[in-house]
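User: structure tokens for this one?
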Amino acid sequence: MKPFKQKINLAFVLLCVLPLPMFGNDVHVDVDADPNPLPNPQVFINEAFKNRDWQKRFTEMMENPRIQQALIPSITEKIPEANQYLEYLRENDILKAREFTQELMKFHRNYNNMLRRNQELAELHLEVERMELSVLLKGLEIQNLEGEELNDKSRLLEELSEQLETLFDKKMELRENEISAMEEELADLQTLLEDRKQNRETIISRYLQEITGNSETLEW
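Assistant:
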């Protein structure tokens, strides 16, 4: 049962991350369509499931440039600063651009997973990610000042310093929230553990009936 549950979890993650096509009665055929269209999300999921070593297959497919190309627009919609930074890297360091693309995809997957468990914490992670990218962009702006633009350096440095102070405070808030979330989860686990201790004999008896094929006699 465990591999099946893992596949269901993977499908749910992909459905959250990938923009699935809409289905309806009306079908529009684009005669000027791209002869090499971007991957269909449903095909992506099916292909990952066909392979025995589906986790390895999933990782390989997520590193596929065309899969990345299909996902990036949905990511940068939430993180517009990422698009600016990615454009800079593509022009100046293609290897770092690829690494950053993979980091974006990993962040987006983690964000969607967290969004289902703790929306407040997920949004805080997103806010910090955007602020960190804004700081990087401001730093690049300062590095690339030329000529008369250098007159603005002092002002830009002051703005960057203020951004860094705000970012630091926000990251501290994030860490405090993460600790609180872990403490709540730990408390829930402790409660569950105590319940199982109290119901030890019932749990053992029920499982004994299940593995010996006698559980049907206990059904309502």
